[in-house]
Amino acid sequence: MDRDIKAGLLRAGIAAPSADNSQPWRFAWRGDDLDLRIDAERSGYVSDTRYVLSDLAAGACLENIIVRGRSLGYAADLQLFPQHDDALWFARLHWRRDPESIPREPLASAIEQRHTDRRFPWRGPINSDTQARLTAQTEMIAGQRLWWPRTSRERKTTLSVIRQAETLRFRSPTLHAELFSSVRFSAGWHATCEEGLAPAALAVEPPMRPIFQAMRRPAVMRMLNRLGAAAMLGWRSAWLPIRLSPGLCLIVISSTSRSDVLAGGRALQRVWLQATLDGLSVQPYAAAGVLGLGFVPVEPAYRQPLSRMRATLNDLCAPGYGIVFLRLGHARSAPRARSGRRSLESFGDFQ
Ligand SMILES: Cc1cc2nc3c(=O)[nH]c(=O)nc-3n(C[C@H](O)[C@H](O)[C@H](O)COP(=O)(O)O)c2cc1C
Prior knowledge:
This protein has two domains: 3-115, NADH Oxidase, CATH 3.40.109; 128-187 and 230-329, 3-Layer(aba) Sandwich (NADH Oxidase), CATH 3.40.109. Helices cover 41% and strands 15% of the residues. The protein has eleven helices and nine strands. Strands 3-4-2-1-9 form a five-stranded mixed sheet, with helices on one face. Helix 1 packs across helix 2. Flavin mononucleotide binds at residues 17-21, 53, 56-57, 60, 115-116, 118, 197, 283-287, 324, 338-339.
């Protein structure tokens, strides 16, 4: 494998999504084998207890690399969590040049195009052919499913669970601190930034921006929460955009083991790439699925509501664990602001 191919594979991995744009990946080449690790400095924070968010990002990164490799004529033999006492080392890829037997991988052309879109409203419909294509992508990763709310009761219950989870992100002091620490206000409201969330990518309306920025202070958030701000924010950031979008689906993983969460990230990425090829905008909502697993150390007052949320989610999508919702629809234009990425060199030693 020459240098350019190796760099191309890593660039595909780096283009993957990650919670709060944390980009928690490290790469190292050992000859033509590629080792992928979770970056200790960019993982393990509050919502990432037990590496759930990092494992999802790891799966998405891994899938991008495998898909790009296939498009270049390379097959990957995959070893997951190669060393059981090394929690951060999530995969080793051994490459074989095998252009004849590799399946065609049309998803590769969507790797750089894929992005998060937090605007709304979007147009529909998401027809049954599109739903079937997205579902088929999930099922290419063993044990993974895509669940679509079908009845009005399912849609209503789903909306309510997502809204409660998003509300909690502003109500719980621990989650609030984490959420705002990832927003790079220093970038201003028009520029992008190479790590973390650029305010410009958050789709906050201009008149609301000074208030949103002031909310990063715990005292301001506490005061506004006495006036019902958290509930309003849950409504504005989740309920309303989802209600005004034509599609919503949920990645369902078969167990909460780390390799199944990672497989969920691979499935998430395949669905997202296919949606991109189909011209769909996508926004993930991870709070309901991830907080509900019970690993995140929120304040005791919120533990019971969270376990009720999990029970409701389990009833809806059983068997398995709903982990990330995806809001889908057709936007009129591409978003003006997208999250950036760090330079390739900052991801490790891959000379
Ligand atoms: C596991 C995971 C969870 C995410 N959760 C959310 C979320 O709850 N809300 C949201 O707006 N974006 C969410 N995102 C999207 C990331 O913020 C986004 O991928 C990152 O900022 C990089 O931007 P890009 O997707 O445009 O490349 C999530 C992404 C991943 C992989």
